[in-house]
Specification:
This protein is of the alpha+beta class and about 100 residues long. The chain has helices at about 10-15, 35-55, 80-95, and strands at about 20-25, 25-35, 60, 65-70.
Length: about 100
């Protein structure tokens, strides 16, 4: 997967395809609200598995019933790349009530 920095327009276009995600300080970010702390912790475990599969890791913050993710690509100088959006799409697919799964 390409790790070239995306342009501002490319980032904005891709964010339109990922409701709930936004650009914050050169990172794409999303917070998920879940029904319980256990559900939030379980989501963190699933996200960690996706990150290991992609060999691309976000910053994850576990709250009482929330999970916050922020991600950019360190090897691209901290820019947002295709890899960040691949991670975001994969997380959307497994987030309860948010994606296909």
């Amino acid at each position: 997967m390409a790790t070239e920095p995306l342009s501002q327009k490319e980032i904005e276009d891709r964010l339109r395809e990922l409701p709930g995600w936004s650009l914050e300080d050169n990172r794409i970010a999303r917070t998920y609200r879940l029904g319980s702390h256990f559900a939030a912790a379980a989501l963190v475990v699933h996200v960690a598995g996706i990150q290991d599969e992609l060999d691309h890791h976000s910053d994850l913050t576990l709250g009482y019933n929330s999970v916050a993710l922020t991600v950019n690509t360190h090897s691209a100088g901290g820019a947002v790349t295709d890899l960040d959006f691949e991670l975001a799409r994969r997380v959307e697919d497994i987030a309860p009530g948010h994606g296909a799964g």
